[in-house]
């Protein structure tokens, strides 16, 4: 598959006189594809059952004439006013939120019968109408799905059915949710409902199940759109654009019926975010690739400072737009579609800037986009069908993430923030890393990190232990193995079902939160730690680091256990990033995974390959000039010529290097 | 008109035995006028249609006997319980607020039919009853009008009518509001309504129009009271007391049918506010004078520490009460009525202190009031019919202020705060300044500052450009010319319709928010700037200051353009106050406007004149002794005798100087 | 009465197989008593009128067999779902909160007819069923009563009745509440209601009365339970567990029909709280003892880190659990029941840790509990029937506390925080102190502190003045004598009715809030003060300290007045703690109350006595070793042997010393 470059474009928002001049400029700048129509329901179906696709036909035809392909969005994120007014069940019933806010967006309940019906009708209408259109290459379902904690009667009813399928009787519900506590036993299904209140005193078993149900509601709702499209367009691709991976949603299930994942990528342009932002961006991209374990698209790539319902961001530094677009490709994007062609002059999103300003005079941002598009076009053939192949992985778990949001343990602790620290440590060492959710193929990896797997079901624990047994290298962290699948506490010493594999038992824990503690390793080097200290009894493991303060001074802070053919590390605390660097570098070297120990701050390296062809991306995501040492000479595909012992990168400079197969930067 | 000194007094709150002793003490202290009855509806009409004015007759007669005049308030800010209980449409429907809170205040919808009916009845009753009373000199409508974001059916219905008058068809509404965005097209008038939610995702065109409508609702509601009073009392004055000018309300329209404006003035008594508070107070007074471009009253002047529903303020420093009362006069007040005679012993306002404490023992604050009243009495004849005549003006714009509140652009930016910086710079240079809203007479001024005129309609832009064309000096700042009147973005380079006059085009902008940047002027002097940096292309202007950092280092930060007979400055950023001082002093000198460059911090100077007679007020609004240099000898009207080369002022000291006509302090 | 050691245990939450092994371990560890059933309504009455007590019979019998006594809770804090579903009037109508949240707790209106009916039924059922059970020794009403600002129709109706009893007519209500302000006059009882809004603009007289009514509603509601139990079990004790004394509730009235008070004690385990926490804990225990002026129980003593709906606390330092349990005994506890035997594995309270963790492996915390239980068992006979006898008291006032919460005066001021400073000063000087609420026996004390008695009714003022008259020593602080009982301001100079006794009049006040001021005493020593400065006119008092800044420099800051046989101090400001130490030490010495001026930080001393036997508790509530000087040799009851001139205490070390009668530590 070639690498696509595109823009998001809203013909319905602009005077028709602008369409053609926009298309001309797009063509000239190298645009391959335009996404459109994902918010246009009120224009496509101005009144119930009266469709007006003529304007869209005209727009698609026009772009088609300029050889620009079209991805069509199903416009269900913005139900029109006639729909919400005549079928108010469309509107979700969200605690602390209005029952209706037409003209806004996202105001639709996934379990609403009317919403499901009219979704099917508009999706089928569009799918059928455009099934033979040569310019239409694919579809996007809805827009940026997220979980709704809706408590309308249709959601409640759906939840009862979901519970009946899962638990059959109320007796089982009462047992699995532990309702004996605080006289919470249900004696009738109708008592299972939601309340307009803070959830902090609620039963965590109930709350986790409700989120599971709502996550599945999204998936079931999307299927209506998928069915409608597939029926008429078996050849065209279907994707969905996720707005941010930290959002707890079972993305794996959401993307299961789709062809590939898409992501809306807005790296922060503020200078005070440059230290962390390139890394959290890398995680989001790796996570998106993990949704289906394959390449993906970016459906909204940063094209100008966001704003509107938040303060307007800083103007991107010269090179920022291009460099971050290359970052998307470097981590697996096969399509990069910029949001948006031109800033809106009307509506709530006026200050979410596009590539071109309200003035319609193309400026610096547009020129950078044009440069990027040209570069991609030049390398498209070389990069086509290349993929990332990594030997280390981080295991992400939806239930643990959700359960820890419901019961956050201590101030400062956040499951996703922990993931960021670990992932960043890999990236700073130049180690390619996957973020996976499925434990059925752990053997693909030499090293797997399992952070805070709070909810740990027996099958998962077995798979992890089995991975170690057969030679894998595991790292686990505190708050692992605390809960059963039903979100009740496991009645055995922590880390619960992984206690044997890890060779330790937690005898007590000290939730230190934002208090800073220290521990030292075998060399006596001191590291900070925070949030949580487990106190360990080593059963079969041996200690490799020890607490250096408080009443448990000298007791183990990190342990390693030989288990079968493999080894299992337990971090009893949350160490500062420097310890992760030290530990991961050591382990990677022992596994012969290439490590680049002196990669400059802000520089990222990753590799896409196709058979013997290997392309290495070197990105300087900082405002300073950076120099990278090379292990051997490479061919420079963007800068032209050869790079021998070092490569100097301008601020936000990018290079793509081509090397002989099996040669990586940093490999001795 | 003489200068009136008065107090706010609530006979209904006190045992009748106190009335006469209060009147005796007032008389003795020099009180000319008492405001009363503005909260007394439940005493004036204890039940529907049953009026009891006997107690008020008695009170007015009593004060009349002591030659104390009365201003009567129409008590509609506090609808009584019988009214809200039997006619609940009186109560506004405010998002996030209760539908009813009797015993509180402000609980009335301006569009409620019942409220309008019973307002007319009580206003007519009072107007007719007191039409011939010799003690009653004037009237106050309601109390401290403010905008209500009410969404009751009467407001919504009124809004539909307002829209139909303005736009005629839904088609035009959809076009003017740009509802194509996010499928927000209205297909029926009934769909135009308000929602119980944050407005941040709403259409800004809709939101601005709703505020315009509500602002006009206040004006229409007030007219009921004005009509009732005028019908019976064509000779008595009518005013209204505004509580705070930053409040976005179209004050010009509100005061149009009234005789003069009034203001409720509570300068902050905390020592940590002394650096800014005297200046924000000066702006409020100048703004009040600008409502009708004429002298005004202060209807509630600080008489003791406010408190009650906020922490009680610091006790005023000795001299504070007198000095701030003189500040009111110095900037155009012809009446100063203190809030309040004595602190309430009951109700929610117990700790909003009056001149006399709960103990009813007059203390230090009361003595200061007595001194002030004596001084005013002594100068009353000299000051009568004097006015302020200024050569510089700041243009305030309701639509821009409101639109910027709806879309605040960046953290730290606030339209009114910008006004404060600019106005303060004038005051610190001793330059008299008007705050105007009307562009039809700009030629009256030598220098006009137009801060962030975000919403800029063609007629206004033409008037401003025409002013420059004919020789005026203009200063404009960022975020000018961004929006059409309908709050859609203007599709041309910023500063939009003033781009030609200012000789610049904004090619890009960097919303730097609270990050600090610097720029330097022609001398190389460095200044801080913040919030927003426009990047300029100079078309016909020349640069006079340049950015000294970031990727646009060396590009223009301030420009000046010769346009017709005049000159137009564009500040591409928000500079620190020191730059304003430098620029305004330079420009004022070039215009031969007197500048006092070494006025001590906290000292303010202003001038009232009547023909040849000029009175200069010198106020030390600080806790330290301050010395002011004089350009020539003056007669001291408060201190007695002559002030020759310098004038020394005690902490919170005040002097009124009389000089020969056309001689001003600071004039060389 | 012996000293009881116990645990809170919830048989309904655990598999029946665990009961007996739990009982065995309890027995072994020295548990005397178990509290149970206070949340078990849904298990005791699974459906309306169908009771299931068999499981509880079995549990009680089992514990009885192990000679473990049982305290039974009436489970009314957690109404079951069948009750709230079928009789929704049970649910309170709380502003800003959901009308129903079953499965949570505290969701019951005290004035609900259904709640009152079903409370009577379940209480009678339990009382009758267990009246002859030898293991059952006492009862707990409900759980942790608190005030509900419920505005359901039953509460409103009850309030009307309460008002009619108190005021008879609406005319009197209007007068007492001062409704003339802001047209708030009531013309019909139905207008007296509550509103869904912030209370900040409400009438403070109304608000105080509503809190009085709701406080009495709790008392009346509890009486249903008391009557049911007494009828069948005249021999068993009844108590109630208060969760935190700062809560404004008329505890004296609540405990009046009960045998003794109980308290739920959770000292903060975080190291950064060690400076203040041992002292605020001491205040809570002294306050609990003051509820009935007699010994009490702790019904929930800290057994592990709380958490769940807040961040999990730090693990307790070694010795912490034992030391704080001894603190409870040292200040009057005759029973110490730990919360809870084992952490819950289900429900919202999973992370409110018990003595034993989820793993069910007893650890360090459990061992500490076992040590404590053994120590108590050894000293039980010696300590039985001992009481505290103190010569100084602080007067707490519900109405003042409540009224100051309604009108907080200045930022930073909090009535209860003021109490903490004063109480801590006594504790740091080793002076035993009572916290009393009743002024009818002030003559029992040599020294009485009356902090900020904002609401001061004539009878109370007379009692306080009479106490001084007859030789007492009084210390009063600012904001005393401000309000009548109806929460209107008193129309006479402050401190109102105590002005004569204190020999001062407040001529003015300066609410300095968080600004720091200073004053100096007769030696010239400078002290900080904050929040509030009264400016005094001394009528008969003499000054002993003076302000050293601002415009009132040199005027009195502290005064003393000879009044009859006694002396009355007035602190015109809120001084730093050092001044309290100085003043209290001086006054205590003058009264021959023993003072220990060099007690190390964190060490607390108190004394229980029975006739001639005196037991002195010395507690080191810190993480450092501390040494205490002794005035003469003592017998060590925990450490064994003699302590002669000094006593060294380990971190969280505890000692009980026995001395000859009338000999106290610190007495010269």
From TrEMBL, chains A, B, C:
Coiled coil: none annotated. The keyword Zinc applies. Residues 602-658 form the Beta-galactosidase C-terminal domain. The keyword Zinc applies. It catalyses: Hydrolysis of terminal non-reducing beta-D-galactose residues in beta-D-galactosides. Residues 391-593 form the Beta-galactosidase trimerisation domain. InterPro entries: Beta_galactosidase_C, Beta_galactosidase_Trimer, Class_I_gatase-like, GH, Glyco_hydro_42, Glyco_hydro_42_N, Glyco_hydro_b. Its EC number is 3.2.1.23. Keywords: Glycosidase, Hydrolase, Metal-binding, Zinc. Residues 8-377 form the Glycoside hydrolase family 42 N-terminal domain. Belongs to the glycosyl hydrolase 42 family. This is Beta-galactosidase.
């Amino acid at each position: 598959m070639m690498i696509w470059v595109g823009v998001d474009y809203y013909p319905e928002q602009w005077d028709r006189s602008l369409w053609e001049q926009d298309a001309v400029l797009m063509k000239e700048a190298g645009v391959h594809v335009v996404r459109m129509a994902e918010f246009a329901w009120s224009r496509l179906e101005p009144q119930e059952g009266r469709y007006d696709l003529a304007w869209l036909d005209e727009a698609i035809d026009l772009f088609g004439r300029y050889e620009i392909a079209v991805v069509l969005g199903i416009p269900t994120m913005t139900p029109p006013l006639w729909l919400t007014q005549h079928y108010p069940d469309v509107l979700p019933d969200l605690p602390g939120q209005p029952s209706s806010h037409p003209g806004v967006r996202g105001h639709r309940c996934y379990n609403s019968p009317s919403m499901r019906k009219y979704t099917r009708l508009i999706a089928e209408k569009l799918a059928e109408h455009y099934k033979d259109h040569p310019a239409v290459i694919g579809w996007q379902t809805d827009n940026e799905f997220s979980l709704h904690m809706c408590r309308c009667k249709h959601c409640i009813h759906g939840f009862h059915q979901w519970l009946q399928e899962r638990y059959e009787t109320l007796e089982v519900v009462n047992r699995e949710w532990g309702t004996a506590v605080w006289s919470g036993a249900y004696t009738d299904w109708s008592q299972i409902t939601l309340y307009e209140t803070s959830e902090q005193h609620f039963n965590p078993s109930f709350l986790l199940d409700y989120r599971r149900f709502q996550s599945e509601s999204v998936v079931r709702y999307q299927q209506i759109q998928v069915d409608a499209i597939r029926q008429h367009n078996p050849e065209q691709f279907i994707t969905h654009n996720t707005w941010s991976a930290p959002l707890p949603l079972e993305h794996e299930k959401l993307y299961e019926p789709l062809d590939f994942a898409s992501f809306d990528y807005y790296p922060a342009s503020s200078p005070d975010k440059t230290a962390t932002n390139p890394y959290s961006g890398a995680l989001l991209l790796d996570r998106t690739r993990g949704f289906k374990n394959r390449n993906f698209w970016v459906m909204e790539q940063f094209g100008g400072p966001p704003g509107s319902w938040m303060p307007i961001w800083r103007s991107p530094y010269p090179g920022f737009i291009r460099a971050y677009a290359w970052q998307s490709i470097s981590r697996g994007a096969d399509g990069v579609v910029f949001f948006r062609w031109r800033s809106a002059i009307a509506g709530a999103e006026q200050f979410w800037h596009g590539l071109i300003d309200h003035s319609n005079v193309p400026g610096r941002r547009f020129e950078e986009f044009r440069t990027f598009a040209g570069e991609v076009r030049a390398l498209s053939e070389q990069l086509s069908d290349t993929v990332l192949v990594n030997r280390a992985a981080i295991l992400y778990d939806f239930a643990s993430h959700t359960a820890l949001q419901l019961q956050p343990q201590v101030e400062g602790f956040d499951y996703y923030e922990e993931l960021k620290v670990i992932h960043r440590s890999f990236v700073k060492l130049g180690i390619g890393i996957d973020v996976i959710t499925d434990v059925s193929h752990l053997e693909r990896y030499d090293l797997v990190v399992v952070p805070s797997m709070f909810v740990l079901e027996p099958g998962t624990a077995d798979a992890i232990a089995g991975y170690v047994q057969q030679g894998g290298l595991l790292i686990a962290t505190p708050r692992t193995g605390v809960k059963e699948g039903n979100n009740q506490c496991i009645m055995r010493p922590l880390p619960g079902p992984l206690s044997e594999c890890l060779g330790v038992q937690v005898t007590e824990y000290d939730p230190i939160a934002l208090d800073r503690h220290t521990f030292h390793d075998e060399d006596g080097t001191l590291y900070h730690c925070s949030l949580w200290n487990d106190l360990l009894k080593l059963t079969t493991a041996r200690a490799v680091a020890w607490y250096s303060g408080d009443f448990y001074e000298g007791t183990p802070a990190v342990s390693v256990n030989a288990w079968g053919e493999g080894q299992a590390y337990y971090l009893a605390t949350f160490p500062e990033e420097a310890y992760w660097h030290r530990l991961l570098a050591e382990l990677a070297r022992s596994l012969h995974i290439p490590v680049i120990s002196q990669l400059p701050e802000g520089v990222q390296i990753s590799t896409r390959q196709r058979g013997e062809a290997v392309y290495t991306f070197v990105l300087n995501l900082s405002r300073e000039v950076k120099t990278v040492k090379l292990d051997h000479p490479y061919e420079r595909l963007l800068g032209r010529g050869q790079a021998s012992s070092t490569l100097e990168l301008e601020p936000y400079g990018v290079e793509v290097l081509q090397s002989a197969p099996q040669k990586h930067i940093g490999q001795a």
